[in-house]
């Protein structure tokens, strides 16, 4: 995959998004509860990209949707700037969400197949009362060009007439039309061809710089997250294991789970044997219906002790911008 353009800049001290003790649980009948997200806390600074990574089922996408209040979380605090979103009435929440937009994993299914691109991209401003159709259309054409699409070519097309990469560009354009402050990207490149992935990543970096966006970038690909993020938050089974600066992640990662994920990045010089790969992955994963007590990673951790089973490790600051939740590091 082509390398991503480096456009990172230090975040300011003012958080664009603050999440505290976020809990998301789902009842599944017979008295059982899925503990999807269990008390995670983090901030996203203005102009910062926070990557969120973890195995499938760790709760990263659920956390992103809960921040959007889709649906509302079980408990916890979500502040967009100074606005506490969890306490807003439905109309105030609807208005505040213009500043918080989301790009979904499957670009084709996230677009109405019956509507043309011109309707999809101009819908947001039209809903919010902008009656100047000429101005809205001009802005839409500018944004489509900004995301790498020819407005004249795609204007009257429907999503089924576009490729996956083109549909994802339409989704990005649709989000930018409302001038958001925070953009949640839920695995935006995982369903795209490898040749298109770097283009979309570069596009997001460019949009971040042009519009002063903060990004919450959710993915399962560790290499992609390292390239695009300023900091990386690692999740496992609904909890945060570590938050580490991306630029020196390889050397500064402390949590055993983070190190396991880093070791999964393909390295042509590593020469790992098939037997070693099987041994590393042949572990029965815990269920979010009945997660382990204490540290949820302890059933797979080589450093686990009795304390890990009895006590939940708290996220603590170990260095500038670096937090870890582990009793043994």
Automatic annotation (TrEMBL):
KW Repressor (keyword) present: no
Pfam families per UniProt: ABC_tran (PF00005), oligo_HPY (PF08352)
Alphabetized PROSITE patterns for the sequence: ABC_TRANSPORTER_1, ABC_TRANSPORTER_2
GO BP terms: peptide transport; transmembrane transport
Keywords: ATP-binding, Nucleotide-binding, Transport
NCBIfam families associated with the record: oligo_HPY (TIGR01727)
Name listed for the protein in its UniProt record: ABC transporter ATP-binding protein
Lineage: Bacteria, Bacillati, Actinomycetota, Actinomycetes, Mycobacteriales
């Amino acid at each position: 995959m082509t390398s991503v353009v480096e456009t990172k800049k230090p975040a300011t001290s003012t958080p664009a998004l603050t999440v505290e003790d976020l809990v998301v649980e789902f009842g599944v009948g017979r008295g059982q509860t899925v503990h999807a997200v269990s008390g995670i806390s983090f901030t996203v600074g203005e102009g910062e990209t926070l990557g969120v990574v973890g195995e499938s089922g760790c709760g990263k996408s659920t956390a992103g949707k809960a921040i959007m209040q889709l649906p509302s979380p079980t408990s916890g605090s979500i502040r967009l700037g100074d606005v506490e979103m969890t306490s807003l009435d439905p109309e105030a929440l609807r208005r505040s969400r213009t500043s918080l937009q989301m790009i979904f994993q499957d670009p084709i299914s996230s677009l109405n197949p019956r509507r043309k691109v011109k309707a999809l991209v101009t819908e947001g401003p039209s809903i919010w009362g902008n009656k100047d159709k000429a101005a809205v259309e001009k802005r839409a054409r500018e944004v489509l060009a900004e995301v790498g699409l020819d407005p004249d070519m795609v204007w009257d097309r429907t999503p089924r007439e576009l490729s996956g990469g083109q549909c994802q560009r339409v989704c990005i354009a649709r989000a930018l039309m409302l001038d958001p402050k925070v953009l949640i990207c839920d695995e935006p490149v995982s369903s795209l061809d490898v040749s298109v992935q770097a283009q979309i990543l570069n596009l997001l970096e460019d949009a971040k710089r042009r519009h002063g966006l903060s990004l919450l970038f959710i993915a399962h690909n560790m290499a992609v997250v390292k390239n695009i993020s300023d900091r990386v938050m690692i999740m496992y089974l609904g909890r945060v294991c570590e938050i580490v600066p991306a630029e020196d992640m390889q050397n500064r990662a402390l949590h055993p789970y983070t190190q396991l994920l880093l070791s999964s990045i393909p390295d042509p010089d590593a020469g790992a044997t098939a037997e070693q790969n099987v041994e590393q992955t042949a572990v029965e994963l815990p269920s979010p219906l009945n997660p382990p007590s204490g540290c949820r990673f302890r059933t797979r951790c080589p450093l686990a002790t009795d304390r890990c089973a009895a006590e939940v490790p708290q996220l603590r600051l170990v260095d500038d911008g670096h937090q870890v939740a582990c009793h043994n590091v």
